[in-house]
Records
---
Amino acid sequence: NAGVMQNPRHLVRRRGQEARLRCSPMKGHSHVYWYRQLPEEGLKFMVYLQKENIIDESGMPKERFSAEFPKEGPSILRIQQVVRGDSAAYFCASSPGGDNQPQHFGDGTRLSIL
Amino acid sequence: QKEVEQDPGPLSVPEGAIVSLNCTYSNSAFQYFMWYRQYSRKGPELLMYTYSSGNKEDGRFTAQVDKSSKYISLFIRDSQPSDSATYLCAMKDSGGGADGLTFGKGTHLIIQP
């Protein structure tokens, strides 16, 4: 499968636990983007990463959220001490980089907080 | 005023009709425009990508951009029941590290057989 792979597809956590969402970009893509889709809301940009670097985190909540894209392995979006309001679909997209290269999305991780 | 406005619908049309979907935006820095299709419980699927004013055609789909009016459209010809989905417009400015897309809320389209 050459597409953007996200796992798990569904994740259930209790309030106060940690959530880790993983994203493997398309083959040949070195740019990764995370978005959040709340019920009845549009997709909102969170963070843009290249290998080992955060390029733009202007959409990330200031607390409890972090992201990384290590030299080896998938990109990780980490949410500490989850709260009910974190329940959403989290989507990852990737591109080869450059203005004329569109972003391609995975099928998302649906996070539910009990 | 939201950066990108898109009528959420639902928009219901009979099979075979021409569908017109639209977005308006307020940020004149937006230079790249995309249309994505999203089926329920799935990720957005890229349909069209353009960065100039005018029309771009791909099969049954035509994307239209009018930068002077800050208005973009997606036309679907010979609509099929399988086109029933949510259509998202997205846009971004010309880089400088700001590669995050700004999305409309999406229009829910229903094609009646």
---
Amino acid sequence: ETGVTQSPTHLIKTRGQQVTLRCSSQSGHNTVSWYQQALGQGPQFIFQYYREEENGRGNFPPRFSGLQFPNYSSELNVNALELDDSALYLCASSDRTGGPHEQYFGPGTRLTVT
Amino acid sequence: EDQVTQSPEALRLQEGESSSLNCSYTVSGLRGLFWYRQDPGKGPEFLFTLYSAGEEKEKERLKATLTKKESFLHITAPKPEDSATYLCAVQEGGYQKVTFGIGTKLQVIP
């Protein structure tokens, strides 16, 4: 069974630029959630994708957007990067069938905005 | 709005010294409470899901319990390899959002 993978591992961008982060979900999982984790904080929910549609969103502005593909992989896009966007971005996959779904996280992408 | 408060923020234990981590939550209709372990620079690793008050789950030296307002993660006779940040998270009924606490950073000294 393949776990959740994310790419790239690290990324350095300049303020105002745009970035795309990628995630491959665990085999058999149909739902992907994205989180932002600042240093010393818990993960903050950005949004979730289920069957290629956004299905729940946290308190993040529209410049944070995403996609889910038919194979359940996903992308997180962030436009007009700000310094405060520097964080570890985590992708988590789950099988939404049934009750509360346990999420399995990837290793994350460390984004630094200068 | 859902709230999750974990305490203490940091805990230092001697190897073999048992203790408990606390997670207090405020949510309208708990759908599930989750415990994760996170090592530095890595993604959280799933430990437990608890669904209703009175439920308990165990895994090796860890035992998670749940009441209507809080959850405890009991660590029995910890070893240095248990050193990590332990995160608690809640999911409210009818919503997909999962709210995490700030975590408890556990250090187990040999």
---
Amino acid sequence: AQSVTQLGSHVSVSEGALVLLRCNYSSSVPPYLFWYVQYPNQGLQLLLKYTTGATLVKGINGFEAEFKKSETSFHLTKPSAHMSDAAEYFCAVTVRSSNTGKLIFGQGTTLQVKP
Amino acid sequence: EAGVTQFPSHSVIEKGQTVTLRCDPISGHDNLYWYRRVMGKEIKFLLHFVKESKQDESGMPNNRFLAERTGGTYSTLKVQPAELEDSGVYFCASSQVSDSEAFFGQGTRLTVV
């Protein structure tokens, strides 16, 4: 069975500071990993994904994440937070080569950016 | 190109009533998914359609929930009768193939009072 744990339901940073949102996963088979973002009153938008290949993945809006198999982690980072980054972020996992693309989500982390 | 569209955006109903949620996927997307987020909890998978067929309905909570996708286009999710614990945000997503990016709708917020 697969599971995802996001450490910290709320993270607060100052504008310009480093953003670090933590995600650990559990999977008995090689996973595909995702980060989604939900802005207020909008649907989930894909930020980035890891499938195979390079373990450092770059996404939209300056975000990136690194797949670390030994640590079963897929933390999301951004060097400098912007006010527009305030949103809820979800880490998710799915099984490679499955006939279903169903996602297993973490609990979500709300990012607050202070001026 | 239109994204995934869900109707209604909000619904407030009384316990025991019936509610039907609708999802229009992106045109040409054979895969359609329903997810639900109960307040304070994670987003959970409900079911997956490939065209009009149910590929995986392992996440459906009980037989008060019925999902259909007649003709392989839009999908409906009916809750009958609704219970208080059914309150939450229901998301729909679609993708071209099962392991490609899933695009999400804005969700339907269901409140059962």
